[in-house]
Amino acid sequence: MLHERLSSVYDNVLRRNPGEIEFHQAVREVLESIGPVLGKDPEYAEHKIIERICEPERQIIFRVPWEDDQGEVHINRGFRVEFNSALGPYKGGLRFHPSVYLGIVKFLGFEQIFKNGLTGLPIGGGKGGSDFDPKGRSDREIMRFCQSFMTELYRHLGEYTDVPAGDIGVGGREIGYLFGQYKRITNRYESGVITGKGLTYGGAQVRTEATGYGCAFFVEEMLKARGTSFDGRRVVVSGAGNVAIYSIEKVQQLGGIVVACSDSSGYVVDEKGIDLDLLKQIKGVERRRLSAYAERRGTDATFVAGRSVWEVPCEVAMPSATENEITGKDAEAMVRGGCMAVGEGANMPTTPEGIRVFQEAGVSFGPGKAANAGGVATSALEMQQNASRDRWTFEFSERKLQEIMKDIHRRCLQTADEYGMPGDYVAGANIDGFKRVADAMLAMGLI
Ligand code: NDP
């Protein structure tokens, strides 16, 4: 239920942003949480802070022309939504996927504002990407696309202005091509302008692993709060990309057994536990379908084409592929199957019905804003190292990441308690993230 004042804010968002359903969903989730804040702090409503937060500071849409290996010309659309810079330069990844349109970029950018606030680090919120489909493209085609994309985007970036990173379809290879083109156009070695860089040219230790590792640390804290741990627990992780792979790695180190993962073609079940080296080889190096994992693994693993991995029973679920992958029905089946904790590695992977089912069943539910914030937090650490021309060790960086995740977990619970919703990580994350941004905006006058 929405507070009366927030209901009119939401109606306005629907009216001003027609058809952008993912954006509507992300806004509604935040508005549903912050009703109690308005009672305690009337200043936010008086100064129309919420209305202002729902309107991006700037939206950039541009043409990206490029040529494939056969010489055929393609035209894609590029986006960068600079949503909120009250806490620092716009910060958030770039997504290359055919489903990308303004509504997806705005939902991701909106989430990013609160997530970045929650980290306690000086970063604002933004997001970008393109409807370009990298699947099946050669390295040279990817490079030409990235160069064309950056040829427009560079003018909007800067280490004090807007600092992108990766997301779906944008990993180390793409970041390298994007940074190379930025450097070439601007004639500046401005390392802090993009994060997720390779370790040979300004990247930071643990950035590649950070979202997945951070999510595992967050879930470990949720399990601790329930008086238990990962040890011997049956875990399912969706996806087989950056976030999924490093979630699996850390969960295995913490004693959990990851029995299934997925990609856009289906899922694989491996009751003895996913063979991570093989998974990295198939998905990360060879860039093949997940069925190749089962073929090479032999009789231990089964590949199931075209179905949802959430039909595999588990005690801990870590959705790490894409938005709205866990429906209300999936959630009901998961609860029946013994699921006790969910940590969202992806952004908004659970539908509102799914969240309701988990919360009503007493499942510990860690929303993406909190559980996957380790990625952007470590990006901020990369910016810090770039600014001071410093390099930290893997161990030091991982310790920092773990501290940040513990702190986010603690603050989610503390804030939820303060507002009378004990154990509600969604409310805790939304309220804490919101207040940090809102207080900065109040202090800066009418911005
Ligand atoms: P990757 O591109 O590395 O991996 C994405 C994985 O999810 C792939 O296995 C892909 O399958 C699968 N996938 C993508 N879209 C779909 C779909 N529509 N249906 C089914 N499967 C799909 O991306 P990341 O791991 O970086 O990102 C995953 C999620 O985590 C996203 O929600 C992203 O926003 C979020 N996130 C990422 C961060 C980061 O640091 N990278 C930080 C915070 C959140 P296939 O291999 O077949 O394409």
TrEMBL record:
Name of the protein: Glutamate dehydrogenase
Residues that coordinate or bind NAD(+): 211, 242
SMART domains in alphabetical order: ELFV_dehydrog
Species for this entry: Sphaerimonospora thailandensis
Keyword Ion transport (UniProt): no
Similarity section: Belongs to the Glu/Leu/Phe/Val dehydrogenases family.
Function noted in UniProt: Catalyzes the reversible oxidative deamination of glutamate to alpha-ketoglutarate and ammonia.
Catalytic activity: L-glutamate + NADP(+) + H2O = 2-oxoglutarate + NH4(+) + NADPH + H(+)
Keywords: NAD, Nucleotide-binding, Oxidoreductase
GO molecular-function terms, A-Z: glutamate dehydrogenase (NADP+) activity; nucleotide binding
GO annotation terms (biological process): glutamate biosynthetic process
InterPro entries: Aminoacid_DH-like_N_sf, Glu/Leu/Phe/Val/Trp_DH, Glu/Leu/Phe/Val/Trp_DH_C, Glu/Leu/Phe/Val/Trp_DH_dimer, Glu/Leu/Phe/Val_DH_AS, Glu_DH, Glu_Leu_Phe_Val_DH, NAD(P)-bd_dom_sf
Quaternary data: Homohexamer.
NCBIfam families per record: PRK09414.1
Signal peptide: none
Residue ranges constituting the Glutamate/phenylalanine/leucine/valine/L-tryptophan dehydrogenase C-terminal domain according to the UniProt record: 204-445
GO cellular component: cytosol
Binding positions (substrate): 91, 112, 115, 166, 379
